Amino acid sequence: MTEEQRRQNRIKIDYTNMTDKYLKEKGYSAEALESLRALSEQAYGYVSGNRGKDELYMGWTELPYNQKEIVADILKTAKSVREKFENFVVLGIGGSALGPTMAFNALCHLHYNDLPKEKRGGPRFFVEDNVDPVRMRDLLDVIDVKKTCFNVISKSGATSETMTQYLIIADLLKKAGEDIKEHVIFTTDGAKGNLVKISKELGGVKSYVLPDGVGGRFSELCPVGLLPAAVLGVDIEALLEGAAYMDELCKEKDFRKNPALLCAVLQFAAMKDGKNIGVLMPYSDNLRYVSDWYAQLWAESLGKNVTLDGKPCNVGQTPVKALGVTDQHSQVQLYTEGPFDKVVTFLSVEKYAAAFPIPHGCENIPDVSFLGGHTMEELIRAENKATAYALTRAGRLNYTITLPEVNAFTLGQLLFLFEMQTAYAGAMLNIDTFNQPGVEAGKKATFALLGKPGYAEQKKELDNAASDSDYVL
Ligand code: PA5
């Protein structure tokens, strides 16, 4: 991509509606934002100073730069998967599933699986991130395991959900007389973890490494996300180039010049001000699942009860997923008139990938005929602007991130923007952004309930915590 193309594809942030210019006393004055400068510079220093450090789980900052050979290998594997298989199924949960789902939805046809094979060019695609037996049954109703490649993604290889799915498909493949290792690709830890052991037992499964310093929710730009995306025919090099471009834009220490630091400052100001809910509202069906991915990133990273220096705290902001325009007819009433506890981030698109003129018609019904002669693109953009305007008029904090269009390069930028924003915000809150003890606790309790060796004590505790009939209606 030339410098000019990169510039044209640069995503932009408009935070006018966070300031007191239009929001009057509800918005932030220049002085209020300036009062966060020192803290933002400290956060900038922390993130820049710890880039790439695996021991702090900050290896993800280097993913745009250090995967040349891996990318080449992934492209080779993806080519063979596209030729050999009718279906590609991701088995994973959390960070291992939300990224692949988001990239699939953002960069592929919205009805990709329903397209004829010639139009798809690649296998049908499924991400299975639950252990609802109905979902498993229904998946197996629409795929033939003999014609399917399963990408098992788990750093630990010990996550009950993913390993349950693996056991089921391995059993089915065996019963179908198939060689399991020809149907699975593992994305897992480099050296330890159960998938490494299973690979050995099966005689060597094609495996990709989920690098040490990359936690699940920061893993979309490593093989976790790159392999599924490549199988779908996404330009993964452009995805990484977009991330590197955003990284370059985030080199400035001044939050007014660094997009991710700016977003972190805005969100931090809002959190301090009691805005405990952060709504992400893309005006694009393609970007719909960015909200799911972001929800994990933001919630798991910032929801913490202890500071880095060991002091108790209860911080974080609850992410809410909304879709423009759909949720205008569902949640926007609350955003406009409900409690002053939210900040809304719109994701806007300048140029949609499809154009739809609205035909003239119903000439005798002015309520309808005024639409004729416009385009759907004009309508969705107008509704986006109108919602931001209505929120602003009601004194509600909101800002807009605009993508010139949705493509691999802009998506790469957006993901890296959110990752850096999260790292800066966590540093401003002085917490460990990269751990997730709350998730681990639930995982361990599940082990205990299902009788995993070593969890007997916890099982007893759980059994005693059974619900009290006095409180069951
Ligand atoms: O962000 C995280 O670390 C988690 O959501 C994990 O991705 C999730 O729990 C799955 O863990 P694993 O990759 O070990 O199967």
Describe the protein in words.
The protein contains 20 helices and 12 strands. It is of the alpha/beta class and 473 residues long. Helix 4 (37-49) packs across helix 18 (408-429) and helix 12 (236-249) packs across helix 18. It is globular, with a radius of gyration of 24 Å. The structure holds 5-phosphoarabinonic acid. Residues 93-96, 154-156, 159, 162, 215-217, 300, 436, 439 line the site of 5-phosphoarabinonic acid.
Summary keywords:
473 residues, alpha/beta, 5-stranded mixed sheet, 5-stranded parallel sheet, 20 helices, globular, binds 5-phosphoarabinonic acid
Q: Regarding quaternary structure, how should these chains be classified?
A: single chain
Rounded mean pLDDT is 95
Number of helices: 20
Based on secondary structure, the structural category is: alpha/beta
* Percent strand: 5-15%
List the helices and strands and how they pair.
Elements: H1 3-8, E1 12-14, H2 20-23, H3 30-34, H4 37-49, H5 68-84, E2 87-91, H6 95-107, H7 117-120, E3 124-128, H8 133-142, E4 148-153, H9 160-175, E5 184-188, H10 194-202, E6 207-209, H11 223-231, H12 236-249, H13 259-272, E7 277-282, H14 290-302, E8 304-306, E9 312-315, E10 318-321, H15 332-337, E11 342-349, H16 366-369, H17 376-393, E12 398-403, H18 408-429, H19 437-449, H20 456-464
Parallel strand pairs: 2-3, 2-4, 4-5, 5-6, 7-10, 7-11, 11-12
Antiparallel strand pairs: 1-12, 8-9
This protein binds 5-phosphoarabinonic acid.
5-phosphoarabinonic acid binds next to helix 6.
